[in-house]
């Protein structure tokens, strides 16, 4: 039976990029539990604040699978009145804000403050407890925003410890709920052989995928150095790098030339639209997340889980949660260990099959039905605490 209360979710929905994949899945899942009102953006922030270019141009997401999500697209970064109006006129019994980006602080602070003034609970899912590129400003403004929170959701146990250590938030106010798999990217009937032909890849080539925005902390240089050792053992292997540039590519280009890997690395250095994501995962044999440092769960990793792909990850943040066997968790910034792991599994079909089976089990843990159950329990506890033990909405 569906609950009678309404939640307001603050975040992004397509065509805005931001957290749209996550928010899309969350809204669909929660709409089966309660009424959902989504507070999204008309204009999120100016392009000069977004290193990869304009953040609001992906019109290829699928439609909602339910009509039970009411979407409000009135927020604009340049109009504080829109922030106040959304905060005051939203009808949710509680606000569930998705926090991840420093430039959005004024908007989030005002909307959250409006809900507090209306005596309604504020729950914050903290996607980035700490900034990916170390930032004291992000930590400072996050601390201010968190003063408005009644309860907090993070994606891993390490995030919970970081919240208590960096922001002095009591552990009982923090719940760990994983980042769900992003199954909407899957195309039923996708043909691996045809897709490989379309991308100019032979059926026999072993493809290692490094997918997602190219940023300094993601260890692209480590992956390239490790791949040089892989090619010595398996000259038929290819490293497929796909994602928008958030850093200067020239140092990586020079490293590729220095190591003589020009023929072995395939580059798609641009934002990959939602409708094309499946192609890169379908043609790949192994996914690589060689991050140097990280404190959360990976959106790209969640996509890999959706496709049940074998993965090798660094021992940072929530990345180890994406694999079952610790053999496939390697020290960060260690090309030798990374190469050893890739070589061990790449030409061993039984190992790759076992890793794919592990990904299947991870996908079950990260299912949105399970996430919706846990999140709904958090909503009920917050509402009962704020209003009464028998709150019905």
Order of SSEs: EHEEHEHEHEHEHEHEHEHEHEEHHH
CATH superfamily of the largest domain: Glycogen Phosphorylase B
Global morphology: elongated
What proportion of the residues is helical, as a percent range?
Answer: 25-40%
Walkthrough of the structure:
This protein has 393 residues and is of the alpha/beta class. The longest helix has 19 residues, at 368-386. The protein has helices at residues 20-30, 80-89, 105-117, 136-146, 157-167, 192-198, 220-233, 250-258, 277-282, 299-306, 335-346, 349-365, 368-386, and strands at 6-10, 35-43, 69-76, 94-99, 122-126, 151-154, 174-176, 206-211, 237-242, 265-268, 286-289, 311-314, 329-330. The radius of gyration is 21 Å and the shape is elongated. Helix 1 (20-30) links the parallel strand 1 (6-10) and strand 2 (35-43). Helix 3 (105-117) runs parallel beside helix 4 (136-146) and helix 10 crosses helix 12. The chain folds into two domains: 6-180 and 367-386, 3-Layer(aba) Sandwich (Rossmann fold), CATH 3.40.50; 188-365, Rossmann fold (3-Layer(aba) Sandwich), CATH 3.40.50.2000. A seven-stranded parallel sheet has the order 3-2-1-4-5-6-7, with helices on both faces. 38% of the residues lie in helices and 17% in strands.
Task: Write a concise synopsis of the structure shown.
The chain is an alpha/beta fold. The protein is 38% helix and 17% strand.
Defining traits:
alpha/beta, Rossmann fold, 13 helices, elongated
